[in-house]
Design brief:
The structure is a homodimer. The first copy, chain A, is α/β, with parallel strands linked by helices. Chain A has 2 domains: about 120 residues, Rossmann fold; about 250 residues, 2-Layer Sandwich (Dihydrodipicolinate Reductase, domain 2). Helices cover about 35% and strands about 25% of the residues of chain A. The first copy, chain A, is built from 14 helices and 16 strands. In chain A, α1 crosses α12 and α7 crosses α8. The longest helix of chain A has 16 residues. The relative contact order of chain A is 0.13. The C terminus of chain A is likely disordered. Chains A and B meet through α1, α6, β12 and α12 of A and α1, α6, β12 and α12 of B.
Chain lengths: ~425, ~425
């Protein structure tokens, strides 16, 4: 590639594609420009000249003058086909599809090696916060203790509206949809599949662990009822969906669950579509990053930076490696608030130590420790019966010490910063 | 450089040098290793084999087998001599001396260009937070609105002890010295010269503005008395020394001053030796980063990352450029709490709008707006007479709107996140 201006071929012109287009236009950057945009819908009015538009993916994939291919379409299966074909053609590729990357991670890494091609995907995690490159470069040789964060701007937006403006879940969801933060089918966001895919990606770059999405439990916010919100309010808690990766006793554990967070918890004040990530590193201390996590321009910015990194010959190091000892999920004990309608599920969870209370309406909840293993097994039934799991604490069977000291019921008073 | 392991020549084996040594040893990194450490004091017992040690700077500068030169000595004049000589020999160089970089910035950039050499200095600002590379790479093409932060771990540590443990300034300073955070002459830290040097460095990478340290006002914490602390406590404020860079009306303004911060301000909870930096960017939103800002290992980590970046052929882009219109310092209006003993200085400040109160002991304080220009002119007298300046707000003459909405007396309730 000796040309001074690289040509970008862009797939998709939705939120991310238009964000990239705007950011490049406004940046004054002269290293690359968009040469072709392939879209699906011929009928839609577009803000760009029709010369730029195409409707056949081979207009980009077969064009030898295109140096960098940016995949920004909604359909993750088709996204994988495009990215795979591009890597096989030894191209430089950018994607922001977390689902596609998480579901095909090993194959995507393999394809890059085999064809000496490069794939970057900063826009797939935490929007504007450059967390993948920080992990892959800056923390490359540091054995991290944990990564925890708010990775889903949509569910955080909904929770902010519920807690700060007393909206009902349905109203808050509607607002998120009206503002373009939530899709018409919000399952990925509100049931926490989206932050799970992101967790899989950070597990690789932060800990060198290759996880499959189905190995990581996820539970979202769509089962909450007025009692859960009331419980949070009475204790001065907010609810935040936190993705957690934690290295302990030689293993790396991962889960995505709603958490009660108190005022001494840094995630307490992260509101609306903002994301936050906390990296606990032995030398650097607890690093905490916040920034916009959703929206056209923040994601466009992240994709633009991947384009610039490709122009500069950057690629991910994938230097960390570790064996994920996820088999010992009996070692991790999660303290949870569990509201249930079916005694059988509660019994299946096999609570270790508990405190139980009756709620007025005949619903019941319980707070106590369960193993990650038992929680994983019961989670489908919990979701389908409208029951609720909210994390309140964490320890291991071996250590018997809280692993995060900022949990609301944590006995230790210590805060991180 | 075709060798697979690069050789590092290290100047100095104090806090930073030992931190680098430890981080490399523990990292398992195989890209570079320390070949020679040149130190001043022959008598001191060192934790490394005497084979590694040398006492003449030419043992490193003249050794053609040394690929990367790390400068980590205390004396900023001698540091510049070493770095200059190394760049003239076309070497790859790392430094963490903020004073040296800030005082010789233009010449250091010129030397790199002229000799096709590279200098990196991530360890010079905010310890473990990789803020320079974020600005130089990730935010390279984004027109930033402002950068604000706690850049000095020592003064922040002292303020934490004063506010959280009711220590007197002298006791808190002594603790900081005992813990190795403050030097025996703490002037650079407590009078905020240190964060000023860092501000100069970030002005270049964040805004493309080349400032001289003497152009940026700095005021520290060593003049505070019990009345100032009481005033803060009564209003539920803490005191934090904030460095500020703000782009407004086509100019970039810079200053380092103590601030009253209320509970709605993100800097409120940054305690002890931690640093924090807030970057307000149009696409990314308000990004906020925290991490350890002082200490051997955090700085060692930053230097280690510079070494790795040099191994990977990285250099700073210095791509932003802007003319610093610092001549119009009458346009920036700082709202300050000013406690004074000499009416003349107060009159020299030429307060625009004020509210005045008498303090019990006959001291006097006043809160009101002054121009950055008048404050700069009076600052030497303010410092020498034991008077105190604490920022409480900011606006421009033209806009008449608060530029930061998280100031304690700000009329707007909006917080950033």
């Amino acid at each position: 590639m000796s040309k001074s201006i690289k040509n970008i071929g862009l797939f998709g012109f939705g939120q991310v594609g238009q964000g990239l287009y705007t950011v490049i236009q406004q940046s004054g950057y002269t290293g690359a420009s968009i040469r072709k945009i392939v879209v699906k819908n011929k009928e839609k009015t577009r803000i760009v000249s029709s010369d730029l538009l195409g409707y056949d993916k081979n207009e980009i994939l077969d064009d030898q003058d295109i140096d960098i291919i940016v995949e920004a379409i909604d359909d993750s299966k088709e996204a994988f086909n495009i990215v795979k074909a591009a890597l096989e053609k030894k191209r430089l590729v950018v994607t922001s599809s977390k689902k596609m990357v998480a579901e095909n991670f090993s194959e995507l890494i393999e394809l890059q090696k085999k064809h000496n091609a490069t794939l970057l995907y900063e826009g797939s995690v935490c929007g504007s916060i450059p967390v993948i490159q920080l992990l892959d470069r800056y923390f490359r040789h540091e054995q991290l203790k944990s990564i925890q964060g708010i990775f889903n701007g949509t569910s955080n937006f909904i929770l902010s509206r519920i807690f700060n403006e007393n909206l009902h879940y349905e109203e808050a969801l509607k607002q998120a949809q009206d503002l373009g933060f939530a899709e018409s089918d919000p399952t990925n966001d509100v049931q926490a599949y989206d932050p799970k895919f992101k967790t899989v990606i950070l597990a690789k770059h932060g800990f060198g662990v290759t996880l499959k999405p189905e190995e990581v439990i996820n539970f979202g916010i769509d089962n909450f009822n007025a009692e859960d919100i009331r419980f949070a309010r009475e204790h001065d808690f907010k609810l935040k969906v936190l993705a957690t990766l934690i290295a302990e006793d030689g293993a790396v554990y991962a889960y995505v669950l709603p958490h009660f967070v108190g005022k001494n918890n840094k995630f307490y004040e992260i509101e609306n579509e903002f994301n936050a990530v906390q990296i606990d590193a032995p030398y650097a201390g607890v690093q905490f990053y916040t920034g916009r996590g959703a929206g056209s321009l923040p994601t466009g910015l992240a994709v633009f930076n991947d384009v610039k990194d490709l122009v500069n010959g950057q690629h991910y190091a994938y230097e960390k490696s570790a064996s994920a000892d996820l088999t010992d999920e009996t070692n991790l004990l999660l303290e949870i608030y569990f509201r249930y309608t079916d005694e059988k599920i509660k019994n299946g969870l096999n609570f270790i130590s508990t405190s139980e209370t009756d709620l007025p309406e005949g619903n019941q909840f319980i707070i106590g420790y369960v193993t990650l293993k038992n929680l994983k097994e019961q989670l489908p039934q919990i979701q389908s019966t409208g029951s609720v799991v909210i994390a309140t604490g964490l320890r291991t069977l071996k250590s018997n010490q809280p692993l995060f000291t900022n949990h609301p019921f944590s006995t230790e008073e210590k805060t991180y910063v």
